[in-house]
Amino acid sequence: LIIDDNPDITTTFKMGIESSNNYADHDKRIEVYTYNDPLAALSEFKPHFYDLLLVDINLPNMNGFELCEKMLIIDINVRVCFMTSGEVNREALREIYPAISLGCFIKKPVTIDYLVNRIKAELD
Amino acid sequence: MVQRIISKIVLKITILVIIEIILIVGSFGVLSYFQSLQSSLGNSINIAGKNRYLTANLLLQTERYLDGSSDISHLNVAMNSLQSNIISLKEGGSISGVELRPLPPEFSDMWNTVNAKWNTYRTSVSNNLIIPSEEGKANTIDKFTIRKQFNSLALDLIGSSDVLVTQLGEQADKNSHNLMVLEISLGILNIGILALILYFITRILRPVLVLTQAMSEVKKGNLEISVPVNEKGNDELSSLSRSFNSMLDTVRNYIKKQNELTNDLSKANEELKQLTNDLSKANEELKQVSRLKDDFINVAAHELRNPVQPILGLAEILRSTKMQADGNHNKSLTVEKECKLLDIIVRNAKKLLLLEENILDVARIENSSLKLDIEECNLYDVIGNVVQDTRDQIDNSRVELLYNKMEDGIFLIRVDKSRLEQVISNLLSNSIKFTKEGTISLNVEKEDNQALVTVKDTGLGIDPEMLPRLFSKFATKSEKGAGLGLFICKNIIEAHGGRIWAENNSNGKGATVGFMIPLVTIGN
Fold it and tell me: Which of B305, B317, B479 sits opposite A15 (nearest CB)?
């Protein structure tokens, strides 16, 4: 599940990941769902359906961390990767959101190859 | 020092008391002297009174002698008694158990009279009784005459003695009156002097009392007092009072100085507080600027990187699909799909370019190196171009653009066309960005030789917090935009001699941004 308020980015990522499926075995194909609005993403969020959340931090209405906190309440097992094209201060973030793991952090822009590899690494 | 003062005071008081005692004793002495004078006068009266009796006795003895019923010795005794009584009256001395003083000189005349009468009587006795007996017996006819003569002499003697007694009595009366007056006077004098002494004692003791009172006041903490001092006073108490006053002065000055110091200190403290406040305010402002800069870097980084992602990703996808499609038409993208992806790339590249231009413009403004390429043109042409360019953006949104222009309009202006287009385009795209659905009206009017252009939308409006610094650098609250557009607009409009402003619509829906630039006057 990819959530980013920029439709160009969700389009690019969805196409990029899906085109990488062409090389993969059938059972290792990745299905991609995208949302541009975090409120819509949250209201339609289904537990035990997604393996990985790819969440942009700078979102309208609520930021990526808040969205993530709410989604983790619904599905505690889902893994999370944050994305941002802004600057990241992990220490400050850890203070504000102590409950959230900041292990996976993707700094845009990234190549499709890097993105796919990173997603696969998280899913293994 | 106090010991010395006390002994001095005691000495003074003792002297005064001694004076009083001397006075009282003296008064008593004077009084008893006069009293004794009075009583001796009384004695004199008694002795003088005794003359009468002795004279009567003498007359009796004289007659008895004349009768021959007694001899001469009895007559002599009677005569001696009278004689010694008269002498004693004058000379004084002890007589009949009474101490007698000599007769006061003012009575000597009267005594002389008495004495003369006595001498006459005695002479008569010597002449008529003693001497005739020596001549033989006196005849009986003469005896009657002699008796008569003696009788009258004795009466004279008694009379003069009585006058003396009366005079003495009068004197005694007068004396006793004078004595009373003297007693009263002395009493009054004594009381007066006693009062005077008491007054002196109080005067001596008063400074001590005042000092004691002052000290107890000071003990209570009242320092606003001073002890009255006799300036001419040279005594110990005056100097003690003076030194007490000067001590109080010193203490007062010290306390005053301390208060002043405390005041100064609290004033300095106040100033320091003010300074600290100012500093922390300045610090806050600096922090604000720094935060704005941090925010700007964050936003600018976001804005610069975001368009790169689709360009990079889509270019990669297009390339890889082209590679895969080589020889396999099933996997190739449709031309339509490819064009759509290329459009996204172009749009993001344009976005990136615009942002870069904005950042460069800001740098130019900061450097004061923003150059204007001024030419004379019609405002409608400029606006027309912008409306044409934003048509795509309008069509892709759910916003309707209303363009109201005056019928006959040629608005001649001298401007940098591309810069003015930049401003109007910026205002329009801002309105589009913050209006999800509704209308944007673009109005052009003429006002006092100025062109007035307003862009009014029905969107979210401007955050009141943002309003005051809307046109300053990095003023952004949304995730979209680096907060540079309106800053650049303001600088461009002002460089053209115009002004720009923004306000929320009075109906509470949306905002209006407008600017004015001078028109070219006809004939100019």
Answer: B317
- Dihedral sign for Cα atoms in the order A111, A114, A117, A120: negative
CB contact A18 to B (< 8 Å): no
Instruction: Determine contact: A60 vs chain B, CB below 8 A.
Output: yes
Scanning every residue of chain A, which has its alpha carbon at the shortest distance from the alpha carbon of B318? A16
Euclidean distance between CA atoms A118 and B306, whole angstroms? 19
**B499-504 and B511-518: which strand pairing?**
antiparallel
**Nearest alpha carbon to residue B454 among B433, B484, B431, B477:** B431
| From B297, B305, B313, residue closest to A12, measured CB to CB | B313
Chain B residues with CB-CB distance to A12 below 8 A: 309-310, 313-314, 317, 344
- Long-range residue pairs from B270-273, CB within 8 A, at least 24 positions apart, any chain: none
Task: State how far the Cα of B513 lies from the Cα of B515, in Å rounded to an integer.
Answer: 7
A12–chain B nearest CA distance, Å: 6
CB contact (8 A) between residue A110 and residue B309: yes
Chain B CA closest to residue A87: B298
What's the pTM?
0.50
Say if CB A14 and CB B311 are below 8 A apart: no
- B297 shares contact with chain A (CB less than 8 Å): yes
Nearest-CB residue to A108 (from B298, B305, B324): B305
B341 and A15 within 8 Å at the Cβ level: the answer is yes
Strands in B36-102 per DSSP E: 93-95, 98-100
**pLDDT tens digits, chain B, 524 residues: what are they?**
667 777 887 888 888 888 888 988 998 898 888 888 888 888 888 888 888 888 888 888 888 888 878 888 888 888 888 888 888 888 887 776 777 778 888 888 888 888 888 888 888 888 777 655 544 454 555 677 888 888 888 888 888 888 888 888 888 888 889 889 988 998 898 889 889 888 888 887 777 788 888 888 888 877 777 777 766 666 767 777 788 888 888 888 898 899 999 999 999 999 999 999 999 999 998 888 887 777 777 777 778 888 888 898 888 888 888 777 666 656 667 888 888 888 889 988 988 888 888 888 888 888 888 888 888 888 888 888 888 888 887 888 888 888 887 766 678 888 898 899 989 998 888 888 888 888 898 888 888 888 889 999 888 888 887 788 788 776 665 555 667 888 889 999 998 889 999 988 888 788 899 999 998 876 54
Under a CB-based contact definition with an 8 Å cutoff, are residues B498 and B447 in contact? no
Distance CA B151, CA B310 (A): 188
Angle at B433 between CA B428 and CA B438, to 5 degrees: 80
User: Residue B317: which of A5, A19, A87 has the nearest Cβ?
Assistant: A19
Task: Please report residues of B whose CB lies closer than 8 A to that of A13.
Answer: 313
